[in-house]
Amino acid sequence: MTELIKELCALCGTSGDEDAVRDFIISRLPDDVSYKTDALGNLIVEKKGKATPKNKVMLAAHMDEVGFIVNYITSDGYLRISSVGGINPETVIGRQLQFRNGTRGVIGTKAIHQQSESERDKPVKIGSMLLDIGAKSEAEALEKVLPGDCAYFTGEFLEFGSNGDMLKSKALDDRAGCAVMIEMINSDLPYDATFVFTVQEEIGTRGARAAAYTVAPDYAIVLETTTACDFSGNEGEKKVCEVGKGAVVSYMDNGTIYSRNLYRMAFERAKEKNIPCQTKTVVAGGNDSGAIHVSAGGIETVAISAPCRYLHSPACVLSKKDMKAVADLAYEMYIALAEKE
Amino acid sequence: MSTFDIKNTLIQLCGENGVSGDEWNASDLALSMLKSYTDDCTIDRFGNVIGHVGERDENKPTLLLDAHIDQIGLIVTFIDEDGFIRVSKCGGVDRRVLAAQTVTVHGSKKIKGVISVLPPHVKKDGDKVAQIDELVIDTGYSKEELSEIVSLGDRITVDNEPAVLLNNRICAPACDDRAGVVCILYALELLKGKATKYNIDVSFTGQEETGERGAKIAAFNLNPDICLEMDVSFAYTPDSEKHKCGELSGGVMIGIAPSLSKRLSNELISIAKDKDIPYSLEVMSGETGTNADAIGVAKGGAECCTLSIPLRYMHTPVEVVAPEDIEAIGRLIYEFAKEGEVSAL
Questions:
Q1: Is residue A314 assigned to a domain?
Q2: pLDDT tens digits, A91-109
Q3: A109 Cα to chain B: minimum distance (Å)
Q4: Does residue A211 share a domain with residue A193?
């Protein structure tokens, strides 16, 4: 699983620019599936199981990651960018960005020596930042980058901490969910299932909206990463959820009030199968569930997420143990929903 | 003219840790590079690399070529109950660039960590940049495990894989002031086998970022007549003010300041003109904020001038320099050492 996550995270695919991720996933599909790519770029995979399920179950994870898009190139060769998806500007300044053609750039700031006291305390907005690819002129920059090209976080994929249990990378949100689905697709399943790798989650769960209509399942399982703030300085409910404490099943976020039945069922199944499981203690964020659960006349949905620190930054951190819990609980819920009376 | 590889020498030097007061790794590497030009070199008790190059002649004045070897970074001040590391600054770290950076903790072994930050989903707009004592570093270890590896006082560097941008511009951490070290090494390469007007000493000094402390010690021991200080200075970017900056790829920035020797500045300007070495003037109104301030008044004093490397994004992990600027400075040092008319007073 870790190797697969690493390969997925190395790919660059922000909203609307997911083709490299989709091509990789297609290359990992076994022969016994059928798949199609829809008009938006969603990849819909039908996997035959040993039996026909009582209910049609759809599993979904999004392919896109947060990133940047080039708006403008200045006469002296700097690039102006906007974020694609929500990014804390403090995690952008002082690091490198990359383009899919290999071009590298840096986002710096004038030296601390030249900043006023108040400037030193004030985060720089992404709109004020300049991406420097080393070009001396607009023409030189245009040889490498065009307005509309997307830029991406960089940084080494790391396994670190106790026994190397922690993973650090860009794009763990939601290549982690994609990895769980790819592994499921490549295993023998007891029931037919539909796997949807969605696009444009980060700019408003747009891919999932169309895909859920197309698939029109009875139940949906969304595989995600979710905000963990369990580092020093945040106590009690402010931790939201905790890395190392298992899969996260939400009752509510900013996009969805989750099916109470499925929420309970997830915790029951987790308990029965000894899968570590927790919930979120803050109503925040949102994911493809928001689009899916109101699609096609209503689809009962459960979200199973890996707790992830520093989400939407170049250094997202999650635990391999939690990934196992997410994969295990996703499998159990898929069985439970396929068999549900 | 020579096979000296400015780009790769710089990238190699930037790959070694040398946070102020813990310069040993960077100093070891710089010493091994200096050994290509002299056997008479060593690292002193304070981490300064000291070398004497070429034959000594009592009648010649001594020229010191100095650059600082240390870099800014963080220092471990506390390991809390949950196994997170608390830190303080070594040098002028820009707090605004720290959130979610990947770091290396230089403990009994090197371990990785991430500087914590709230994600946009729960962060409030208008929050101020965190103070340094509000930051926690996440290493993925428990307190017990971490205490076996990390001690209070260990240094932390922010990771940034070196990158070559367009026009061969180099992005690497610690270009401030490994670029200065490269200027000196390149000058020594050019001077190989050449007669000079000076006895040439070299120092790559520690703790510049925390108050030019290594230079105070080195300059006392070396007691130069003349010193050229190779440090980085501000290259213009559109968020700064043009009149306070030089230009990247603009060549050497020759210093003029009340604390520097005017006749030395004039001599360097005249050589740069003569030899077609691209240059600009960096005029300062008092001290220079470099080791030249300390070296100028060490022991009985020395005549100093700064030859600055224009650098973008100073004190961030993505400092950028242009190899042609380093080349220009190496050439100017070479020409001055060979032909400079400034004698000892």
A1: yes
A2: 999 999 999 999 999 999 9
A3: 5
A4: yes
